[in-house]
Specification:
By secondary structure, the chain is an alpha+beta fold. It is 26% helix and 29% strand. It contains three helices and eight strands. Strands 1, 2, 3, 4, 5, 6, 7 and 8 form an eight-stranded mixed sheet that branches. The protein is globular. This is Nudix hydrolase-like protein 17. It holds the Pfam family NUDIX. GO terms for molecular function: metal ion binding; pyrophosphatase activity. Its cofactor is Mg(2+); Mn(2+).
Length: 181
């Protein structure tokens, strides 16, 4: 699915295509868009100071920052849904990586239960125009700052899993390089 060609479209709306789990909880998916500072590729050692993440404003005024997420619909794979939501809400395109996990949570404003799935997205391109450009702001920030401003506990947990995964991958690559010498 080539999403860059679909950016001119408006965001999907309505719940008629929405997925629900066996408990009746709405399934939502999202991404933690990230990049390495200096755009110099993957560093050989990943310290969280090397990573920047993209957060967006909530559509509800004064409700804080979050990572892009939204409904997973019946006509798309989970990865396609995560990428679509990220393009719609944050205007970035990249590589959706292996899922970070699944969280069950309740809405802060109602008694609605959700099942949330989060993926890392290594950003390859930041779009100038995207469907929710006029209703959201996006901001590249440090991991430390994201821990402070992200409004959802489950997204903060996903962020920690991402940071740990990137550090472990860098350590594996370093070990592989030493063993090949």
């Amino acid at each position: 699915m080539e999403l860059k060609n679909m950016v001119a479209l408006v965001s999907r709306t309505g719940r008629h295509m929405q997925r629900y789990n066996f408990l009746g909880h709405r399934q939502v998916v999202g991404c933690i868009p990230y990049r390495y500072k200096g755009n110099r590729g993957t560093p050989s050692v990943v310290d969280e100071e090397e990573i920047e993440v993209l957060v967006i404003t909530s559509q509800r005024k004064g409700k804080g920052m979050l990572f892009p997420k939204g409904g997973w619909e019946i006509d798309e794979s989970i990865e396609d849904a995560a990428l679509r939501e990220t393009v719609e809400e944050a205007g970035v395109v990249g590589d959706v990586e292996r899922k970070l996990g699944k969280w069950n949570f309740k809405s802060k404003s109602s008694d609605t239960s959700y099942e949330g799935h989060m993926f890392p997205l290594l950003v390859k391109e930041q779009l100038e125009f995207w469907p929710e450009k006029d209703v959201r702001q996006r901001l590249w920030i440090s991991v430390r700052e994201a821990r402070k401003v992200c409004q959802y506990w489950w997204m903060k947990e996903a962020l920690e899993l991402l940071v740990n995964r990137l550090a472990a991958q860098a350590n594996e690559a370093k070990t592989d390089m030493k063993s090949n010498l």
